[in-house]
Amino acid sequence: MMRRLLSALLVVVLSVLTPAAASPQKRVDDRTRREAARAFERGRELMSAEQFEKAADAFTDAVKLDPLFVLAHYQLGQANMNLHRYASAIKAFKDCVDASRTLYSMMQTDRFEAERQRDDEIREARETVALLQRTGRTLQAARAQDYLTDLETKRSSIDPEFRPSAEVLLSLGSAYFRNGDREQAEAEWKAATEVNPRFGEAYSNLAVVYMTTGRKKEAEQAIKSAEKSGFRVNPQLKKDIAAMRP
User: Fold this and answer.
1) 103 has pLDDT over 90
2) Neighbours of 119 (CB within 10 A)
3) In whole angstroms, what is the distance from residue 194 CA to residue 6 CA?
4) C-alpha separations of 163 from 24, 39, 101, 154, 213 in Å
5) pLDDT digit string (tens) for 55-64?
6) Is 68 helix (H, G, I), strand (E, B) or coil?
7) pTM, rounded to two decimals
């Protein structure tokens, strides 16, 4: 799934820290931010041209310059997914979550700086959607639009506690699944549906996990939830689940 949008911190530990205890990193200076934005733009163009190796290098440059560049972490994960480097994709998506968490912490102590960062992310996400639409990549454009919508929602309201983007959790789950870790993939996809209870694609992915682990009832329920959200489930997946033994 195309989505964009920090170092390998322990997610479990960070999730229980208060915003003050997490010692959020400060935003980089404007010159460095502009350099990161140029690297990101190179990566975005290279992704559109399906030059994934070079795109990954450009996104890596962007996050080195600006570790809070959430969308660049996300796109680095997507580039690595296309390169079948699933362990690297997992790290990039986890870094994306960590950067988002840090921005949330910043919002509690320095809202002006955090909003500037978020506004930059929204602008870059809009440009990404427009590029994908211009190049005819309809499905990826739709997924990028979902990510943009999530950013805009977070920009206009502050949750009482940090919640990762459902789109990022979906991508993280996919990276785990491709890397052979079904248990962790299931956990991330469940988390995605908790953030967005109408996330049909996450339910459909869960149905695959349930089917491959022999849980027919759970698979059927996941399919129902996916279709209730308006997501078009693969007909073959429905047939395969129906053919399972109780």
Assistant:
1) no
2) 12
3) 24
4) 16, 28, 8, 10, 28
5) 999 999 999 9
6) coil
7) 0.74
